[in-house]
Design brief:
Blueprint (H helix, E strand, L loop, with lengths): L5 E5 L6 E5 L15 E6 L16 E5 L5 H12 L8 E5 L7 H45 L15 E4 L5 H8 L7 E5 L3 H6 L6 E4 L18 E4 L7 H4 L5 E3 L5 H8 L13 H11 L5 E4 L36 E3 L5 E3 L3 H12 L6 E4 L9 E4 L26 H19 L2 H24 L2 H7 L1 H6 L11 H19 L3
Parallel strand pairs: 2-3, 2-5, 3-4, 6-7, 6-11, 7-8, 8-9, 9-10, 11-14, 14-15
Antiparallel strand pairs: 1-5, 12-13
Helix pairs in contact: 1-2, 2-13, 9-13, 10-13
Length: about 500
């Protein structure tokens, strides 16, 4: 977004800090009064003429001559940490268009990309932090006792893998896969299962790591995968939706599961990736499969209907909160059959593209008739898909069953969790009284010492990251907002007390 006097500006609501790129040669342009901290990327010569009328000590110069991409990110991360609730606004002066343009463009790209990541993470944490942690606590007994076994590593070496995401192209490529699906191992993201079932394909493995993807919205009627790889943050309903021996948990990077590892409950041998699709690809490699064929990994909107980003049989409510405006400008990615394709998943594309770039050449084939190009893959049109190989000769049911962590370590960790939860519950009446008598400021004052407890912070996990920024002055939100936080806190303590 542009502003008079500036080449570019990106304000963030409530921000009292900013990132400035370029010399500010006109007094008062841009107007930076009121910003308590300014990270200023500027050439060394321009740095001797700082913007005027700034708060004392607000300006933090970062000369271009001493920067590389890692240094830019390091400076930005330190700067962002100054305010846990508000991201810095970004201003680029007209000077950046006149000199050192390439250097400024590189800095701006890094800054905007990293701030977008922070914005996404912070927004998701505030929106889903409670749900994530509620799921983690509900899943902990199964996470500790039904871990993906170490024996799976390389257990299917040399077997072809058909890894299925739920992009629009799966409608075309699933029927092409159907005649050959038993010539290899079918590994599917949860939201692709119904499209595969419609084509007559039962997945050997399903991967589900999303908190909002429940089995009733993913599983075909009367059918379940032979194995399900789950996440501690995923919907707990999966634990009961499929046979006990078929579900195994991957290692999760949640605060609570990391704490478990520090307390003798070692993590499963295989770790989840950023999303179900990326995890499914990683699972194929972990199992030793070769070659690996990708289906439904468009990572872009449908060319004929820009509002559509998933296969037709995907449960529409799974992505109800992510409806794509067909008139919205989307980033362009390199395309498989066109120079570029519009994508709402550029971040996901980058992570998968980077991952595949380091894998052996010739390992991965991308079977699609559309979508975004993936590095180090061989493109195959569904009409030309005909993998070599015979009927699967070793039933995957012979894979090792899920394995439990040592019972003594699990019992000790759960006792510690229950104990800290029971102590914290005793303080709830005082917290409620503080809110009733003194409003949010009194509640925040009463709350802060509790979250200083190391174990409680780990038990609360994602919710800790949600609530701690809210406890930092200046406080925001009315009594109703804070009552909601207190109710969520009480619900998590109750769940922690029930752990067995």
């Amino acid at each position: 977004m542009s502003t008079p006097g500036l080449a570019y500006s990106q304000p963030y609501p409530g921000s009292a800090t900013c990132v400035l790129l370029g010399r500010a040669e006109t007094p008062g342009d841009p107007d930076l009064r009121g910003h308590r901290a300014i990270l200023w990327f500027v050439d060394g010569e321009g740095a001797v003429h700082p913007p005027s009328e700034l708060l004392p000590g607000a300006l933090l110069p970062a000369p271009l001559e001493h920067l590389d991409s890692s240094r830019v990110i390091s400076l930005l991360e330190q700067f962002v940490a100054r305010d846990a609730r508000h991201l810095p606004s970004v201003f680029v002066t007209n000077d950046a268009l006149a000199r050192h343009t390439e250097a400024y463009q590189s800095v701006l790209t890094s800054v905007c990309s990293r701030l977008e990541d922070h914005h996404r993470i912070r927004t998701a944490r505030q929106r889903f932090g409670f749900q994530w942690q509620r799921n983690v606590l509900a899943n902990l007994p199964a996470y500790c006792r039904r871990r993906l076994p170490a024996a799976w590593r390389g257990a299917l070496r040399g077997r072809a893998a058909f890894v299925c995401g739920s992009g629009p192209s799966l409608d075309r490529s699933a029927p092409a896969l159907a005649p050959f699906s038993r010539h290899g191992i079918v590994i599917a993201s949860d939201s692709a299962l119904r499209t595969l079932a419609h084509a007559g394909i039962t997945a050997d493995f399903a991967v589900t790591i999303d908190a909002t993807k429940s089995p009733d919205k993913c599983l075909p009627v009367g059918q379940h995968p032979r194995h399900v790889v789950a996440s501690a943050v995923g919907d707990p309903a999966w634990v009961k939706a499929v046979p006990a021996g078929s579900l195994a948990f991957a290692a999760s990077r949640q605060i609570t599961t990391v704490w478990l590892g520090e307390n003798g409950v070692s993590a499963p041998d295989f770790s989840e990736a950023e999303n179900s699709g990326a995890t499914a690809i990683e699972l194929a490699r972990h199992l030793g499969c070769s070659p690996i064929y990708l289906f439904g990994f468009d990572l872009a909107v449908d060319a004929d209907d820009r509002s559509r980003s998933h296969s037709a049989d995907t449960e529409p409510t799974l992505y109800a909160g992510a409806t794509i405006d067909p008139n919205r400008h989307l980033p362009e990615l390199p395309g498989n059959y066109t120079p570029s394709v519009p994508s709402h998943l550029s971040r996901g594309w980058r992570s998968i593209d980077t991952r595949l770039a380091g894998w052996p050449a010739g390992l991965v084939f991308n079977v699609t008739d559309r979508g975004a190009w993936l590095t180090n893959t061989t493109l195959l049109h569904p009409d030309n898909f005909a993998p070599s190989g015979d009927e699967a000769d070793a039933p995957i049911e012979l894979l090792a069953p899920p394995e439990p962590a040592p019972a003594a370590a699990v019992d000790l960790a759960f006792r510690r969790i229950r104990a800290v939860a029971e102590r914290s519950v005793l303080a709830l009446p005082a917290l409620r009284a503080a809110l009733e008598k003194g409003g949010p400021p009194a509640l925040a004052t009463e709350f802060r010492p509790h979250l200083a407890d190391h174990t409680l912070g780990r038990v609360l996990g994602s919710f800790s990251l949600k609530i701690m920024p809210q406890l930092m002055p200046p406080l925001e939100g009315d009594t109703l907002f804070w009552q909601g936080l207190l109710d969520e806190y009480a619900a998590l303590l109750e769940a922690a007390q029930r752990l067995q």
